[in-house]
Amino acid sequence: MNVREWRAGIAADAAFGVVAAAVLAFWASLIADSWGGGYWRFGCAAGAVVCVAALARRLDRTWAAVAGLAVAATAVLASRFAELPSEPGPGMALGLSVLVGSAVRALPVRAAGAVAGGGLAVAVGSVLSANTLTAGVPSVTVLNVAAWLAGVAAGLVPRLLDSRRRAAAEAVRRAERLALARELHDVVAHHVTGIVVQAQAARIVAGRSPEKVGGALADIEAAGSEALAAMRRVVGLLRDPAAPAAPTAPTGPAGLGELVERFTADGRAVRVRLPGEDETAAWPPEVAGTVYRVVQESLTNIARHAPHARSVTVSVEREGDAVTVEVADDSPRMPARHHQRGGYGLLGMRERIEALGGTLRAGPRPGRGWSVLATLPVPGNDRR
């Protein structure tokens, strides 16, 4: 939980505490006026206990819900046999609604269903505490069933939305892994093919003294051929036969230059820092392709979600054994931008980069603007 979510939770709990205290006090005053004496004390105390359990739900949602339901069931039975005002009252119903909604929102399916079922039992069981049944369904039962429905809806709707978001994110990860598998296949196939060719050439050169190196080179050739065939079989299972072949990205400074040039057609000023062709030629193909995809995705996000950005900086640099890619803009900060920019495109990029051992950070810049920073490792011996 980040600081923003923590503060929002504290504010929501504080607001709930104020509302619960006001409802309990209002209901106690009504009971005192209609019943007289100290009849309000029991209902007010029981309702306060349930509301405190609702405030403490973040510590343990299951036990908080169990405690609140137990107090509510006890209050219903006490009001039935001790001839007290009907329970659960409005304050207690409010606390139970929060407990049920919290359980449905966050607990596993079985535990959430059990808490929701217990809440419904208490709401329906409130009919036992009604002082008269001549007018149909008691108002206390209507109140509690309505509060239970509100709690279930408040917990179920965001739970379903989270489930859809997780499913969509998993679909993106799966698609990105398949694309990465295809690219890795091509890369590994290239290197393994080179091993096979070198081994075949070595066998020809060593033809004069096969007793020394012929057997070893034959083993190298066999191992390389077997690895290539195995890789093709595995990746062949991952490919979608109906899907067209993925186009090869025009990597390197020339490809990135064309990408930036298309982006500047909308009137934005772009400052570019790119390495030379000689340096990028030493990068593994999977690193060069990922660099291109990060820049492409970042510029696409700026075009979609930051139309007011007038200046963009694209920087690709080699630092030691890593390539650093940063795309930053100067767009004004908007309330909804954080949610919009956390799309599935960057999620796919994160999956690709982490699979290569790198890192990706995306977020607002100090003051204004947005930045995407990716770091990809490159073996030191690849540098020329």
Radius of gyration of CA atoms, rounded to a whole number: 33 Å
Question: What general form does the structure show?
Answer: elongated
Structural class: alpha+beta
Roughly what percent helix? 55-70%
How many β-strand runs? Answer: 5
| Order of strands, widest sheet | 1-2-3-5-4
For the terminal residues, how far apart are their CA atoms? 44 Å
Quote the beta fraction: 5-15%
- Poorly predicted tracts of residues: 243-247, 336-342
Give the mean pLDDT. 80
Number of helices: 12
Number of domains: 3
Secondary-structure element pattern, one letter each: HHHHHHHHEHHEEHHEE
Main β sheet profile: 5 strands, mixed
Structure description:
The chain is α+β, with helices and mostly antiparallel strands and 384 residues long. It has three domains: 3-166, no CATH class; 169-238; 252-275 and 286-382, 2-Layer Sandwich (Heat Shock Protein 90). The protein contains twelve helices and five strands. A five-stranded mixed sheet has the order 1-2-3-5-4, with helices on one face. It is elongated.
